[in-house]
Amino acid sequence: MIKKTVVFGLALAFMFAMAAAGQTPAKGLKVFISVDMEGVCGVINWDETGQGGPDYGMFRTLMTQEVNAAIAGAVAAGATEILVRDAHDSARNILPELLDPRARLLREWTYGPLSMMEGIDKTYDAAIFIGYHARAGTPDAVLKHTMTTKLLDVIINGKKMPEAGINGLIAGHFGVPVVLVSGDQAIARQAKELFGDIETAVVKEAISTAAIMLHPSKARDLIRDKTTAALKRLKDFKSLKFNPPYALDVAFADEALAQKASWIPGAVRKDEHTVSFTTNDFMEMLKLFRLSKM
Ligand SMILES: [Zn+2]
Hints:
Blueprint: H1 2-20, E1 29-35, H2 56-76, E2 79-86, E3 103-106, E4 126-132, E5 151-156, E6 159-160, H3 163-173, E7 178-184, H4 185-195, E8 199-207, E9 210-213, H5 216-232, E10 246-252, H6 255-261, E11 268-269, E12 274-279, H7 282-292
Parallel strand pairs: 1-2, 1-4, 2-3, 4-7, 7-8
Antiparallel strand pairs: 5-6, 5-10, 8-9, 10-12, 11-12
The structure holds zinc ion.
């Protein structure tokens, strides 16, 4: 009787020790992956990122393979449900047949306010951004822009936001933390400013409008390993949230577009380039942002 109790106690102690040491893989993680193209290893020019570019086929293959690396890394960390959101240009870039079958793929735009984050909800445990790029106006950054090349800046509650920031707030709205961002060194730096000590996979180093690339296979290894590392320390991350009221400034390069956006009810023309909106409703802010760019 005593012996049995001792053995049971030892087994229990062993299980607790394993769990405490992180030996027990997380089970049943639900992971959302938003994928852009400008930050994919190898990509350096707009020609390579759109239908009609002679090398687009090659780069969308590399894009798909980077997503597969993130899927492999997520599965290794215990992911059992993965949704991949194609979030670049046409939203029809990732090659369905080449995609790892352990994930499902969301293609095409819905024209709804969630945009690059369509498909996310509060049931997800983590968000991952693959192929992302720095915000408009960032020096030494590959194909930097914010949502469209027509915008100079998007500022929310006084903070200049890259797409990763806007999309990170959307994830945060559903209580989902961003755990990994891949792209060049500029978006990696901006991601750390926004999200704190998350994992980043730097697949290229921009020098002005050029960049030194890792070999794509090395980039994939890095993305896979960093994804696993991020999901294994999921409890270290908090979802990004700003307190209402939400003050959104949209700065347009073309003054005429600012004029047009200023006609939206509630809009305030702040200066030559900038139109401002204030609301207590996060989803309303997203809708106003969408309208302002139409
Ligand atoms: Zn893009």
